[in-house]
Amino acid sequence: MKDLLKGRTKCLLVRPEFLTNTFYNLSDVYDLLGAKSAAPPLGLLIVAALLPKHWQLRFVDHDVTPLTEGDIDWADIVFVSGIGPQEETIMRVVRRAQAKGKLTVVGGSGACLQPQVYQDADFVVSGEGEDTIPELLDDLGKGATSGTYRSGNRANMKTTVTPRYDLAQLDKYLMVGVQYVRGCPFACEFCAQIEIFGRQPRTKTTQQVVSELQLLHDLGYRGQIDFGYDNLIGDPVHCAKVLEAMRDWAIRNDHPFFYSTEATINLAKDDKLLRLMRDNDFRYVFVGIESADDEVLEQTKKSQNTTVSPVQACKTFNSYGMTVQTGLILGFDSETDQTADNILKM
After folding, report:
1. Left (φ > 0), alpha (ψ -120 to 50) or beta: where does 319 sit?
2. Which pTM was predicted?
């Protein structure tokens, strides 16, 4: 067997397609908006940056370019990443690659939450890549042909790698993601993010953030950046410093980007952060309102939503130039026959 850690190993990184007629397949919408997909898969681009520098990398996002037999023939090893609803198409890629004698590695949030589902892959990686990918590479160097890697360790975001944005066709997407923070201090019981990244917010430095913006600028990208991840304001003090640095960078570079983000509803009470977001041209904010019933919110450990009127919060965000996108959930245990009506009346 070829020693994958020596020589110019050919590594194929794949995001498989989303099944048609499902929530995550919005191809018709993307066509109307002049794009192929929402955003490149940031996790896979981070993994690419963690791989040996001498490896040859090829990135295939099925939303943009279908995976061909030629792509698989070219590769020595195939990395596949996706979310839970992509289970079927992830394993479809695995079987295609294994039929040609290629080693396969499966990761992503799907494998983090349900690693057993992907056990037919040669390697399954569950946990943050900064901790698990080096273990995988070490075993590949020893000639391993299978393994499962699971780590609960949390990466130091101040030393993490810069994603390989250069591998993606950035002009084919509606937006590009920039990850500033992992982890959220709240404990919403239905949230997958705290299961993967924990409840202690870990942030990049202002210099890291500015450097990633500069890289995207230098690559020729202009337009929307989805900034933050998990909860933008998990560490509000540091967030303000980062937003100030972003504002100053934008002024020097003629404002090449506008932004979207995700935050908890208590952002509506922080005028300083809202002003900085307006200064940076944040146009969209996703806020999980979830329910209009305080009892439901308390039961699901989303009590932070009971301290702010969702209607007033949305008006506040609007006043700072942001469109609010929200999540609403029906099906919690303590709901009543009035719960749906209460949501409609909000």
Report:
1. alpha
2. 0.93
Q: How far apart are CA 7 and CA 204, in angstroms?
A: 33
Q: Which of 219, 209, 220 is nearest to 242 (CA)?
A: 209
Cα–Cα distance for residue pair 212/217, rounded to 1 Å: 9
202: β partners: 182
Residue with tokens 């506008």: 258
DSSP annotation string for 293-306:
-HHHHHHTT-GGGG
- pLDDT tens for 142-157 read 999 999 999 878 889 9
Q: What is the pLDDT of residues 219-265, one digit of tens each?
A: 999 999 999 888 999 999 999 999 999 999 999 999 999 999 999 99
Terminal C-alpha separation, the chain: 62
Could you tell me the domains of the chain?
Answer: 10-150 (3.40.50), 174-345 (3.20.20.70)
Q: Hey, what amino acid is at 83?
A: I
